[in-house]
Amino acid sequence: MLKGLGGLGDMAKMMKAAQEMQTKMAQLQDEMHQIIVTGESGAGLVKASCTAKGELKSLDIDPSIFNSDDKEVVEDLILAAIKDAQDKAGARAKQEMGKLAEGMGLPADMKLPF
User: Fold this and answer.
1) pTM for this entry
2) Domain boundaries in the chain?
3) pLDDT per position in the chain (114 positions), as tens?
4) Which residues does residue 66 pair with via DSSP β-bridges, in sequence order?
5) What is the CATH number of domain 2-103?
């Protein structure tokens, strides 16, 4: 019967670890909304900033591109800057998740729910 009690102790430890992980993931979710990354295109003529969650926050467009008669070029530069920012946001989110996993003794490349 004592063996069974040891199992309950292990279960309690696992539950506590799961609760800690849930708390840390919730904190990381909040932090991801505060981390800002910037993508750019056209050698910096267009810059887009977004959160590590991929939420677009701002665009910075050099006024010189408005002198272009090619509307499609301007649109492409804007889209490329946004895509670059979102790609960087995804990489940053993965990096932060890796830090969290390592801090909990898990493999850094473990896919945690997010």
Assistant:
1) 0.74
2) 2-103
3) 445 555 677 888 888 888 888 888 889 889 999 999 999 999 999 999 999 999 999 999 999 888 867 889 899 999 999 999 999 999 999 998 888 888 777 776 766 554
4) none
5) 3.30.1310.10
